[in-house]
Amino acid sequence: MRRPLFALVAAAAVLASGIVRAGEVVLYSSNTVDAINAATEEFNKKYPDIKVTAVRGSTGAMMQRIKAEAAAPKADIFWSGGFSLLRLYEPYFLSYQSPEYANLSATYRSSSNLWAGTNAHVMVIMVNKRALKGDPMPSTWSDLANPRWKDRLVIGDPEKTSSSLASLWGIQQTLGNKALEGIAKNATITSTASQVFDGVAKGEFAVGITMEYAAQEYVANGDKDIVVVYPTEGTFIAPEGMALVKGGPNPADAKKFYDFLASKQAQGMLVKKFYRRPIRDDIDTTQVGLPKAGSFKATPVDDVKIAAEQPQFIKTWKEMVAAK
After folding, report:
1. Which of 18, 72, 208, 252 could lock 154 by a disulfide, CB 3.0 to 4.6 Å apart?
2. What is the DSSP code string of 20-81?
3. Each residue's pLDDT tens digit in the chain (324 positions)?
């Protein structure tokens, strides 16, 4: 019988006891259960004797947990945060020169080897045609500031989800505060990214600001109500990454999992199963329905700038939300 790949109860027991066996990796992740399970299963084909124990939570919550545990780290590796957020927590990461870096552009890794990319998120507008109820489909970010979307637009909390931070910060940089204020007035704010695409898919909301892969999964699975819109003003590309935790209990095995996540094997599997756009150039995305990079207008998010401006941006955003 194949052992369970994902068990929060087991993870909690391991962390509470402080006992970690050889041949184990403790993973903190804001990724989906399915993606974690698939990555673990693929990893175990190569390393069958290494158990991956996963603990899930939002990116912000996992980063805070790593910080709180810094004196006695319980995690070995974190997977799934935006680069801007990873920069803020660099003091808690272990520098590592992965052999897979030969296949990654310097754009997708820390200059100090403290983190590296695993895939690139393209920010999109996810639309449920059934929930439009006759209203025109939005085609731009500025359309979302129209009062018609009041309480029909859903977005993640940018303080807790790095994808929402990238989207909303990009909108502010591109269109200014007026458009951002209109979006804040209309939006329902969720604590996790998954609540956005789930809410739109169920028709609880007509539109949502989310990640390309999340919306594309519904389209690929035959949901004819869902449309993925690449805003004509230009969308934003925010790579997602991983980092080894400094002082983690299983550094050798954690490095193997880190190398695996950066590999063609892992990124090819993740785009095939979950439509995660790879950051490697040796993987074709069109075979799974994702448009080729360069076929739509997009700007990479400046993760250095966004990291520096995050506190003030969050303050401004909260004031806008409170004023609606």
Report:
1. 208
2. --SSEEEEEE-S-HHHHHHHHHHHHHH-TT-EEEEEE--HHHHHHHHHHTTTS---SEEEEE
3. 344 444 444 444 444 444 445 599 999 999 989 999 999 999 999 999 999 999 999 888 999 999 999 999 999 999 988 888 899 899 999 999 999 999 888 889 999 999 999 999 999 999 999 999 999 999 999 999 999 999 999 999 999 888 899 999 999 999 999 999 999 999 999 998 889 999 999 999 999 999 999 999 999 999 999 999 999 999 999 888 999 999 999 999 999 999 999 999 999 999 999 999 999 888 999 999 999 888 999 988 888 899 899 999 999 999 999 998
- Domain 8-120+239-288 annotated CATH 3.90.1300.10: no
Residue 116 sits at the vertex; the CA angle it makes with 112 and 120, to the nearest 5 degrees, is 140
Q: How far apart are CA 163 and CA 165, in angstroms?
A: 5
CATH class of residue range 121-237+293-322: alpha beta
Per DSSP bridges, beta strands 116-128 and 226-229 are: antiparallel
Hey, where are the domains in the chain? Answer: 8-120+239-288, 121-237+293-322
Q: Note whether 200 and 207 are within 8 A (CB).
A: yes
* pTM of the predicted model over 0.85: no
